[in-house]
Specification:
about 40% helix, 6 helices
């Protein structure tokens, strides 16, 4: 077996790998592909950093550069990506492991926003139920969650570089 295949690491498929993990759902556009063809995925980082990663990848066989045209933070990005994949299954194009879809961007973003809002509302409801009825021994380990109107959409966690910049600036 050549070293090329020995060093190749495989990861589980993203939706099951990211189930229960907060992250970002992104839509990427590649200027080397036809218009209306978008890549939808999930990451624990930002969609912009994912686009930069694809642009730097030497094994990327697609022409052109990726650009992030939409990203939204989800409290369970694995479940959100799975639901989005089922919703847009009829518009899927290309190889099975590449999540390219032929979509209208406005309709896709509205659909994704509604899906993420439902998933985030379920996550907040579940967290509130766990807080109301935690096991007595574990009660001190749980954070205090206050229900708020903005709990459905929350900003992504600050990145390492932003924290470092704020630390240096102060």
């Amino acid at each position: 077996m050549s070293s090329r295949y020995r060093n190749y690491r495989t990861l589980p498929q993203e939706p099951t790998f990211l189930h229960g993990t907060p992250g970002t759902i992104y839509i990427l556009q590649n200027d080397g592909l036809r218009s209306g063809l978008y890549r939808i995925g999930a990451t624990r980082r930002s969609g912009v950093s994912k686009a930069m990663e694809f642009n730097r990848d030497a094994h990327n066989m697609l022409p052109g550069n990726y650009e992030c045209v939409f990203e939204l933070h989800s409290k369970d990005c694995g479940m959100a990506l799975e639901v989005i994949g089922k919703k847009f299954a009829s518009q899927r194009h290309g190889k099975k492991n590449l999540d390219f879809y032929q979509l209208d961007l406005d309709e896709a973003t509205n659909t994704i926003i509604s899906i993420i809002a439902e998933i985030n509302a379920l996550a907040v409801e579940k967290a509130n139920q766990r807080q109301q009825h935690p096991p007595e021994m574990m009660r001190h380990l749980l954070p205090d969650l206050e229900p708020a109107n903005n709990a459905i959409f929350s900003p992504p966690p600050p990145s390492f570089l932003r924290k470092a910049f704020e630390w240096v600036a102060n």
